[in-house]
TrEMBL record:
One of its GO terms (molecular function) is argininosuccinate lyase activity. GO terms for cellular component: cytosol. PANTHER family: ARGININOSUCCINATE LYASE (PTHR43814). Pathway: Amino-acid biosynthesis; L-arginine biosynthesis; L-arginine from L-ornithine and carbamoyl phosphate: step 3/3. This is Argininosuccinate lyase. NCBIfam families: argH. The keyword Lyase applies. It holds the Pfam family Lyase_1. Belongs to the lyase 1 family. Argininosuccinate lyase subfamily. Residues 363-429 form the Argininosuccinate lyase C-terminal domain. Its EC number is 4.3.2.1. It comes from the Bacteria.
Length: 462
């Protein structure tokens, strides 16, 4: 087929160039967005007097037929037509005749692709926001089930202080809530229409861009035609937010991988979300979580790929920008799958409360012994040294904190009294953290009420 730019060239395009430069093998993922844009552009051309009523009606009808073929998988994609735009336009011309050639009036593929991408990303953002909300709800439900489950928190992967398991799940709920807020903020900048910017400098037809924006559901217009076609910062920001969401998913996955190991045995993952070994019959592998952890590297890589493409480009459109699509598509697919996988694990896993609580005592409680001495009047640094010496003594004797006698405690400080034994109960220790956002039961119950209200979760029916 004759290229749309063939009038300038004296030779046919080399087959290698066609194969090397084609993008339809991946950008056809934007086909529905492209058709939606085409229809809006036709209506804008009609409003501008570039098309007659019957011409516009005919083109829109044929585009809807093409849309049906695309959805049903009956559309034939041709690599020699380069990209999604030229494939759809060529088919429109084939079916409509010469009038189909009017579609590209007042438009360049430069503002066309930027518009398709923004339409695609708005939809993808809404889907990711939905997945994030579903995951947060799953975390809230798991937190409600485990208000009274106590386990040791870990810093430096060493047992630190006791906390309620609900507090842990609510911590990740906060992370994913902040991720949603970041994505919504990104969406606000994404919600701008580039169409009508032409190749670089605007359009010399009287196109009402505000009308087009209304048809396509954009809240605002991109205000500068050069910026509209030259920049991909909106994709960079989106990929950055997605990479951070992946980071949070990976950290949650890492915890659950550790907790499901024989060494921890804090949680039992659902069989249907695990796999076995081809050689070791006893194995139950947390493959979903491991892949979530691994796929986060792809999210990082996609962000770095686009930043690297952009960093040295001269201003205005360059063909290098073709390389923005595959990282974008891959990130959307990868992140949606990862969010869904982690949610399913959270919903289906079983908590081993006994094992968690077995390890929530002993030296995780000694910070409160130091605070006890402070409450009796000892400066904190002195209390820290005193309790540190007690820990060293217990380690030497092979005893746990719960096994220490009052006499032994008094040998380190006469300030220890019989009431100190209350601090040997991990739940009581957790409940001493009554500050806003702490792990006391009453504070967790308050945070749960807030979280359920924010997520629109009602009380269960009796």
């Amino acid at each position: 087929m004759e290229k749309p730019w063939s009038g300038r060239f004296s030779e046919d395009t080399d087959r290698f160039v066609e194969e090397f430069t084609e993008s339809v093998s991946f950008d056809r993922e934007l086909a529905l967005e492209d058709i939606k844009q085409d229809i809006a552009h036709i209506r804008t051309l009609l409003r501008a007097g570039v098309l007659e009523e019957e011409e516009a009606k005919k083109l829109i009808e044929i585009l809807k037929e093409i849309e049906k073929d695309v959805k049903e998988g009956n559309f034939v994609w041709r690599s020699d037509l380069e990209d999604v735009h030229m494939n759809i336009e060529a088919e429109l011309i084939r079916r409509a005749g010469e009038v189909g050639g009017k579609l590209h009036t007042g438009r360049s593929r430069n503002d066309q692709i930027a518009t398709d991408e923004r339409l695609y990303m708005k939809k993808a953002s809404e889907e990711i926001l939905g997945e994030l909300k579903d995951l947060r709800k799953a975390l809230i439900r798991k937190a409600e089930e485990n208000i009274d489950t106590v386990l040791p928190a870990y810093t430096h992967l060493q047992r630190a202080q006791p906390l309620r398991l609900a507090h842990y799940f609510l911590a990740f709920r906060e992370m994913f809530l902040k991720d949603s807020e970041r994505l919504l903020d990104c969406y606000r900048r994404l919600d701008e229409l580039p169409l009508g910017s032409g190749a670089v400098s605007g359009v010399d037809f009287p196109l009402d861009r505000f009308f087009t924006a209304e048809l396509l559901g954009f809240g605002r217009l991109v205000r500068n035609s050069l910026y509209a076609t030259a920049e991909r910062d909106f994709i960079v920001e989106f990929l950055s937010v997605c990479a951070l969401i992946g980071t949070h998913l990976s950290r949650l996955a890492e915890d659950l991988i550790l907790w499901s190991s024989e060494e921890f045995r804090y949680v039992e993952l659902p069989d249907k979300l695990c796999t076995g070994s081809s050689i070791m019959p006893q194995k139950k592998n947390p493959d979903v979580l491991e892949l979530v952890r691994g796929k986060t590297g792809r999210l990082f890589g996609n962000l770095i790929t686009l930043l690297t493409v952009l960093k040295g480009l001269p201003t205005a459109y360059n063909r290098d920008l073709q390389e923005d699509k595959e990282p974008l598509f891959d990130t959307v697919r990868t992140l949606k799958g990862s969010l869904r996988g982690v949610r399913k694990v959270i919903e289906g896993m079983r908590v081993n409360r006994e094992k968690m609580e077995e390890r929530a005592g002993n030296f995780t409680l000694v910070t409160d012994l130091a605070n006890y001495l402070v409450e009796k009047g000892m400066p904190f640094r002195s209390a820290h040294r005193t309790v540190g010496a007690l820990v060293s003594y217990l380690l030497e004797k092979g005893k746990t904190l719960e096994e220490v006698t009052l006499g032994e405690l008094k040998s380190f400080s006469e300030l220890f009294g019989e009431d100190v034994t209350e601090l040997f109960d991990p739940r009581r220790v957790a409940d001493r953290r009554r500050t806003y956002g702490g792990t006391a039961r009453q504070e967790i119950e308050r945070m749960l009420r807030v979280a359920k209200r924010e997520e629109g979760i009602g009380e269960p029916s009796p």
